[in-house]
Structures are given as structure tokens and as C-alpha cells.
Amino acid sequence: MSQNANGKWLNARTVVTLAMLTAVAWVVTYLCKAIPSVIGFLDFEFKSVVICIGGFTLGPAAAIILSILVPVVEFFTYSGTGPYGLIMNIAATASFCCPACYLYKRRHTMNGAVAGLAVGTVSLTVVMVLWNYLITPLYQGTPREVIAGMLLPVFLPFNLTKGGLNMAATLLLYKPVVTALRRAGLVPPSQSGQNKTFSGGFVLFSLALLITFVLFALVLLKII
User: Fold this and answer.
1) What is the DSSP letter of 223?
2) What's the pLDDT score for residue 131?
3) In this predicted model, what pLDDT tens digit does every residue of 68-119 receive, in sequence order?
4) pTM greater than 0.85
5) How many separate domains does the chain show?
6) CB distance 49 to 166 below 8 Å
7) Burial of 5 by CB count in 10 Å (0-12 exposed, 13-18 middle, 19+ buried)?
8) CATH number, domain at 161?
9) How far apart are CA 34 and CA 180, in angstroms?
10) Which domain, by its residues, includes 145?
11) Are 44 and 32 in contact, with CB atoms under 8 Å apart?
């Protein structure tokens, strides 16, 4: 009886946590609309940070659920890109978050997080270059030949920069956010038994990474 009750409580807690992360990711993405777009429709946004924190904590299945759920909620609220935009949104989010969370589960250390997020950044860049070529002409009305000419000079650096920004922000925010969630009882205690406190060097590495990709973003936005 106690095991069943505990199991129900665990499931309810997970659902509540996923709902909360969905809401936070939705708000973060909405706030990111204040950031100028690249070429009018490529947006820098940080919902993948929230989703990766959820996936790192609850497992890759949570990352898959959130990678679909958050774009769907956006689609039915403030997104104006239609079904094709929804497909692109899910593809971009999942291609970054799912590999990162899967690899972190396999190697549950800070180095594993760095490796997973780096692979996620590469995955996002490769997948979205292909999907921009296939899908963008369908909902932006731009001829495919024009899109093809933009793949390397525009889409590749944009997605690499977007992935790098989300990677750096996730590395900086993961520990304090998860610590707060554990204190609130929304996620279970760490099962690894390892001390994952940030070293000064790790924080400096993450900050340097963030600054580097912020500068890349400013170049793409033609601000510097």
C-alpha cells in the first residue's frame, strides 16, 4: 500500500514539475521575442535551457515530452508561423535537447553535461540546415534556390550560435535551478552520490562560452 501511494505521489510530482517547466519555457520564449530576429524570422530563444534542465533532472523521456509540449503550447497561443513553424520548432528543440539529455544520462557528470550539450549544438546545427532547406520555403514563401544560398552564410552560423548560447546558459543555470527544485520537493534527490558543485574554473569556462556566443549573436544581428 505504501509503495503504491509513493508511486502515485512520484507520478503526480513529475507531472507537476513538467507542467511548471512547460510554463517557464513558454514565458522565457515569449520574453525572448524582444530580441531582434536574424533576417526577419530566425529568433534567438532559450526554452531549450529550461527543457535541458528538466531532461537532465528527470531523464531523456522528459526532454522528449517537453520538446513537443512547449512548441505545441506556443502554437496555440502566440506563435504566428502556422503548422510548418510548429514542425520546425519541434525539430529544433528536440535536436538540441534530446541528444544532450541522453548523453548526460549515460555519463552523469559535469563533463558529461558539457559533452552532451556540445553534441546537442552540433545536432541542432546539422538538422536545422537540412530542415531549413526543406521546410522554410513552404511557410516563408522564399524560393528554395534563395534558401539554398543562405544555408552556409546564414542558417549554419545562426543555429551554431543559438546552440552555443543555450549550452552556456544551461551549464551556468543547471546547478542552482535544480538545487532550488530539490529543496521545493519537485524533483528527487540526486541518485549518483557525486558532488557536482561548480568549480571556479567551470564557471569561468561557462561564462567565456556564453560571452563568445553572445558576440557571435551580436555579429549576426549586425549590432557589432
Assistant:
1) -
2) 95
3) 999 999 999 998 888 999 999 999 999 999 999 999 999 988 899 999 999 9
4) yes
5) 1
6) yes
7) exposed
8) 1.10.1760.20
9) 27
10) 2-220
11) yes
